[in-house]
Specification:
This protein is mainly alpha-helical. About 65% of the residues lie in helices and about 5% in strands. The protein has twelve helices and four strands. It has a two-stranded antiparallel sheet. A two-stranded antiparallel ribbon has the order 2-3. The chain starts with 7 loop residues before the first helix and ends in a 12-residue tail after the last strand.
């Protein structure tokens, strides 16, 4: 039985923040690996560690289990979405970022990388019919602004046009990846993440080899693979759950707290020190998260008729017959049809609640 007294949006927020924690903690740890190899090589090993770890988990514990049967399987019709997230998030994004880093100072690049969250929110609202109310949007922008301040370091801030375009392009690729992943979030998150990370890892590592980068010591390879399992694998599984429950726009705000988590973790891991900038940014981020968590959105809305397959429990949104005996109070997955429904209740812009607002 699932815990039903916790709302889906609250669970989605918790998943999103947990994903940010796992990824944020990995930032200073990955920094320790960079002397052993370039960013592209380390990124490829991190992705590969996530994919191989999730594959091993599937083979040993997950495949055929009761939990796996409750999730909707990945289908051949999802191929274009999977191709899109591997291409944009696993190939184009890292390549453009590395090109940009070669032409820009670290100050400008760090600030520009915060555009990923902003682009994710804009794409979600403009092209994917998501809605973010004023309180939620204010909270998300506060988090993004705090992340930009946290990343700022006085120094050389020369801007190269090609480098600028490359970093902006990388952020746009990752924003598209986030929104395409949200479209796949109704599928089994472990399987989707495994496909995504294995594809991205193989492509990124191949690019690193083609550019003449050498593999690090075996101990460093193992460290990168293990770190990737948690920072990319488990983090992305949680991220997929958050995308499912709260949508890409809100998840972008929650995940933008990762630089703050990384700054906290960097104190004991690499011996960095906190100052007034870090303290001010942490207060602003906390305020942004509180605004997003307290956002309340409800109105009379209409659900259009739709047929799809995803994990669900029977309730106001899911009332349908089954061909076989199923305990409807527990989570289960199968193809089902939603009949038109008009009602009024608190909700966020996940895939069941994409409608116009006056």
């Amino acid at each position: 039985m699932e815990i039903r007294f916790i709302s889906s949006s609250s669970r989605g927020s918790a998943y999103g923040l947990a994903a940010a924690v796992l990824f944020g903690v990995s930032l200073p740890l990955a920094k320790l690996l960079l002397p052993e190899g370039g960013p592209l090589l380390i990124a490829g090993l991190l992705y590969l560690g996530a994919g191989l770890g999730l594959l091993a988990f599937e083979l040993l514990f997950y495949r055929g289990s009761r939990t796996a049967r409750r999730e909707a399987p990945v289908r051949s019709s999802d191929l274009w979405l999977l191709t899109g997230i591997v291409t944009t998030g696993g190939m184009l994004g890292p390549v453009l970022m590395l090109w940009g880093l070669q032409h820009l100072s670290g100050v400008v690049a760090s600030l520009l990388l915060n555009l990923e969250a902003l682009f994710t929110i804009l794409l979600a609202i403009v092209f994917f019919r998501e809605h973010l109310d004023r309180r939620g949007a204010t909270g998300a922008m506060l988090i993004v602004a705090a992340a930009a301040v946290l990343n700022y370091r006085p120094g050389n801030a020369q801007v190269d046009v090609l480098g600028f375009v490359a970093i902006v392009g990388a952020c746009l690729c990752w924003a598209l990846d986030n929104n395409l992943s949200q479209r796949l979030s109704l599928r089994d998150p472990i399987v989707v993440t495994r496909i995504k990370t294995l594809g991205a890892g193989a492509c990124t590592l191949s690019l690193a080899m083609l550019t003449g980068q050498n593999l690090p010591r075996p101990s460093m390879i193992m460290a990168a693979l293990v770190l990737g399992l948690f920072s990319y694998g488990l983090s992305l599984v949680l991220d997929m759950q958050a995308l499912r429950l709260v949508g890409a726009a809100r998840e972008a705000g929650y995940f933008a707290t990762a630089p703050f988590i990384g700054a906290v973790a960097a104190v004991p891991i690499v011996g960095e020190q906190w100052g007034l900038t870090e303290l001010a940014s942490s207060v602003a981020m906390a305020m942004g998260v509180m605004l997003m968590l307290s956002a309340h959105h409800r109105h009379l809305h209409v659900h259009e008729e739709v047929e799809h397959d995803h994990v669900h429990m029977h309730g106001e949104h899911h009332q349908h017959e089954h061909e076989e005996q199923i305990v409807t109070e527990e989570s289960h997955a199968h193809a089902h049809r939603h009949l038109p429904l008009a009602h009024d209740h608190p909700h966020v812009s996940e895939l069941h609640h994409r409608h116009e607002h006056g």
